[in-house]
Amino acid sequence: MTEPQDAQPKYPSYPTAPATPPGQQPYPTGQPPIQGQHPPFQPYTPAADGKRPSAVTAAAWITIILSILSVIGAFTMLALTQDMIDYVRDHPKEFDIQASDLPADSDLKAAGMAVALILSVFAGIAILSAFAVLKRQAWARVILAILSGVAAIVAIPFTFGIVGLPWLAGAITVIVLLFTKTSSVWFNAPKEQLP
């Protein structure tokens, strides 16, 4: 006896994919993958592995190094103030001034001390902000960017003597590094994605 011709061959049943909620596409690209191929490519996101971007690390260490050098330079200049004053008083023609035009020594020392102290305070805030940036504090990134902008503006007049050039370049570099795409993703990622 033969089987009916309309009988369907029996194949093993396979589980089906769960139903997709209304309004949501079952695949990220909207197109199902071709059988035997991998799912659509998902771009790498730095927040996924929790690692701090090298741009953030570089920005923080540039800030720390330049801040320390600024404080050392300010107090070195302060220590040499008296020698510079004496030299200018002894050689006024080299500077196209009269010795009587110079302010009193005490006034120059007070001004130098004020500049050194103000610079030290700003450098201290920058260093603390840099360490906070390394710990993924978003507020520190904003403060560090503002301080870097101020440092760049202050450094511009000194770039003609090349003295301010490293600070100008460093400040601009820090701002750029803090706001690269990878840095922004890392700062804005939910806390549960990062260690």
Key terms:
elongated; 195 residues; mainly alpha
Q: What does the model show?
A:
- It is a single chain.
- By secondary structure, the protein is mostly helical.
- The chain has 7 helices and no strands.
- It has helices at residues 46-49, 54-79, 81-90, 105-134, 138-155, 165-178, 181-188.
- Helix 4 (105-134) runs antiparallel to helix 5.
- The radius of gyration is 32 Å and the shape is elongated.
- The termini are far apart.
Provide a brief overview of the structure.
With 195 residues, the chain is mostly helical.
List the helices and strands and how they pair.
Blueprint: H1 46-49, H2 54-79, H3 81-90, H4 105-134, H5 138-155, H6 165-178, H7 181-188
What's the β-strand tally?
A: 0
General shape: elongated
Strand content: under 5%
Largest sheet geometry: none
- Rounded mean pLDDT is 77
Q: Counting H and I runs of at least 4 residues, what is the number of helices?
A: 7
Low-pLDDT segments: none
Q: State the end-to-end CA separation.
A: 71 Å
How do the SSEs run, as a string of H and E? HHHHHHH
